Amino acid sequence: MKILVPVKRVVDYNVKVRVKKDETDVELDNVKMSMNPFDEIAVEEALRLKEKGIASEIIAVSIGLPEVQETIRNALAMGADSGIFVNCTSKLEPLSVAKILTSICNKIKPDLVIMGKQAIDDDMNATGQMLSAMLNWGQATFASKLEIQDKKIKVGREIDGGIENIEVNLPAIVTTDLRLNEPRYASLPNIMKAKRKPIDEMKVEDLNIDIEPRLEILKVEEPKSREAGIMVKSVDEMIEKLKNEAKVI
Amino acid sequence: MKTLVVVDHNNNKLEKSTLNTIKAAIQLENVDLLVLSDSCKDICNELINIKNINNIFINENDAFKNQLAEDSANFIAENFKDYANILFSNTSNGKNIAPRLAGLIDTMIIPDVIEIVDKQTFKRPIYAGNAIATCKSKNKINIITIRATAFEEAEIGNDNVGKIKEIGNLNVNNLSKYLDSELTKSERPELTSADIVVSGGRGLGSAENFQILEKLADKLGAAMGASRAAVDAGYVPNDWQVGQTGKIVAPNLYIAVGISGAIQHLAGMKDSKVIIGINKDEEAPIFSISDYGLAEDLFKAVPEMESKIN
Q1: Whether the bond into A171 is cis, omega within 30 of 0
Q2: ipTM summary value
Q3: Which of B166, B201, B224 is the last residue before a domain boundary?
Q4: Hey, are the CB atoms on A222 and B288 less than 8 Å from each other?
Q5: Which residues of chain A fall below pLDDT 70?
Q6: Which chain B residue's Cα is nearest to A170?
Q7: Chosen from A41, A118, A139 to mutate, greatest number of chain B CBs within 10 A
Q8: Of the candidates B24, B23, B57, B60, which has an alpha carbon nearest to the alpha carbon of residue B39?
Q9: What is the domain extent for residue B101?
Q10: What is the pTM of this model?
Q11: In this structure, is residue B175 part of a structural domain?
Q12: pLDDT tens, A137-177?
C-alpha cells in the first residue's frame, strides 16, 4: 500500500504571531517555521501503518517556495521514504492545493492520503475534503482512530457530541485530529539518513492548473483586544463581584 | 440571488447554531432552508416560525440519517445550482460537508465567518484568532460556514410562515458507510450553547481531580470544558476541548481553572461576556483577559466557591 502525506510549512506553533503594521498580512520575517502539527500526526500515522506491515511506501509532498523542502526533509527524517516538491511562488488557497494534489494523486496513484485536518496558519480546514471531492474518493475527516481492513478503512471521527465510526473504501482521504497519535521526534541518525532520500521536483506551471486565488485578502488586522479586569483577593470577593457587579450568577 | 442555509440537526432536534447561521444568511438575501434527514417533521416544526425565510426544502431519505459528506455534498451540488450563497454552521457536520461541496463545484470555501461586511466581503479569524482577515470573494457561488457565537439567533415569529417543499432525489454513495457512534452522555447543558462554562486545564493534574470542577459546574448548572493541554494529558474527552482546534464558546460566564491561557485556548473563549481566572501563578496569561482573577490554589478555591454559591 502506498500512502501520500501532504505537509505544510507554517509559523511554528509556539510563535505569537503579530499583524504587520501595514495590515496586509502577519509578520513572517525572521519567524520560526515548522511542519503543521496536524501534518506531523499524519506522517506519524503513515509510519505506524508501515511498521505494522500494512503500508509499503510513504511519500511526503509539499508545495511552495524552495524552503518547503525543509518540511519534506522533516517528514523524511521521521521515516517517510521519498518526497515530492512542487515549486510554486504564488500564494495558494486550499482549492488550488487540492487541484495540485489531485494531479499528483492521478500520477502516483496512492491507496490512501493522510493529511492534517487544518493548517494552523489560515485555519481553513478544507483541503482534504476538497481533494476527496475532486478525486471522487470517500473522506474520513477528524480521525482519532484508524484501522485498515482489506480494501476498507475504519475510522473513528471526532464529532461535536463524541466519536462517530465510519467505513470508507480505499482509496480514501483521511484528515487527522489531535488524538490520533503522538508524533515521534526524528533521531539524529535518521536526520542524517533523510539527507540521502530522494525528493522529486516539479514546477506548478507544468501541471496546467488554475491557481488564481478566489479570495482577495483586503486586510489583516488585530482582533479586538479584551482589557484585563481586576484581581480579587478571596473567593468571597469573587462571588460578591459575580453576583452584584457582573450579575452573572 | 438566493441564499440557502443547510440546517444542522441530529434527526430529532435542530442544532442550535443553525439559528445563528440563519441570522447571518438574512444579511445576504432571499433565504431558503434545506433539511436533509430520515425524518424531517420535528426539525421543520422548529423552523416553520422563523422570521424572514422563504422556503423550507426537505428530502427524506434513510441515507441522510447519518449525514455522510459524500451524500449531502452531491445532493446539494445537484439541486441548488442557482444559489449565490450556501451557508452551513461551522459545526463538525458543516466542516465535513461544506468544503467537499466547494470542491465539487470548484469554488473556494469561506470558513468560520464572524462578520459579513457586504455581499462579497467577509471577516474570518486566522492564526488561531490572533488576526482577523477580511476577504473579498470572487467566487460565483459562495460556500460559507458561520461561527455561531459571532451572530445572534434568528427571530421567531409567525408573520411569515415558510413553505415546506420536497426537492430532489438522492443517489446514495458507495464510497463510505456509517457504522455507529459513541456519544458522550451528559445531564449538563451543551458546551457551545451553555450560559456558564467551567473549564479546567493541566493545573488540575489528573482525571480524578476534574471532579471538583464538575461539582462546581453542577451547582451552577454549567457545561464542562477543558483546555487542549488537559485533553492531551488524557484527563477529559476531546469534545470538552475549548480552543481554536476544539469548540468556540461565548457564554455569559466562563470560569477558567488551572488554565494558563495559551493563545490557542483564548481563541476559543475570549468572546465570553465575563471571564474569571483561577490560577496559583499570578503571572498566568489567563489573567490578562480575565474580568476577575484570583491567584490562589485551585484545590482550595474551587471547593470553597462551590460551598459558598447557593
Answers
A1: yes
A2: 0.95
A3: B166
A4: no
A5: none
A6: B175
A7: A139
A8: B60
A9: 3-166
A10: 0.92
A11: no
A12: 999 999 999 999 989 999 999 998 889 999 999 999 999 99
Structural domain includes residue B246:
yes
CATH number, domain of A186, equals 3.40.50.620
Q: Are residues B56 and B202 in the same domain?
A: no
Q: Residue B83 domain-assigned?
A: yes
Conformational region of residue A16, where left means phi above 0, alpha means psi within -120 to 50, and beta covers everything else: beta
Q: Say yes or no: A21 contacts chain B, CB-CB below 8 A.
A: no
The single-letter code of the amino acid at A76 is L
B143 shares a domain with B23: yes
For B135, name the nearest residue in chain A, comparing CA atoms only.
A217
Q: If residue B47 lies in a helix (H) or strand (E), which one and from where to where?
A: helix B41-47
Residue B32 corresponds to which cell in the numbers above? 431558503
* Residue B148 and residue B43 share a domain: yes
The DSSP call for residue B190 is P
Domain count for chain B, please give it.
2
Q: Which domain holds residue A201?
A: 2-245
**Contact criterion met (CB < 8 Å) for B129 and A214:** no
Is residue B56 predicted with pLDDT exceeding 80?
yes
| Alpha carbon B255 to its chain's center | 19
B299: phi then psi, degrees, rounded to nearest 5: -70, -15
Shared-domain flag, residues B101 and B247: no
What is the pairing mode between strands B131-137 and B121-126?
A: antiparallel
Give me the helix-helix angle, B210-220 and B298-308, nearest 10°.
Answer: 20
What stretch of H or E contains B101?
A: helix B92-104
Q: If contacts are CB pairs under 8 Å, which of residues 67-126 in chain A contact chain B?
A: 93-95, 98, 118, 120-126
**Total number of residues shown for chain A:** 249
Contact (CB<8Å) B102/A123 = no
Look at chain A and report how many structural domains it folds into: 1
Match 470558513 to its residue by C-alpha cell.
B111
**B126/B238 same-domain check:** no
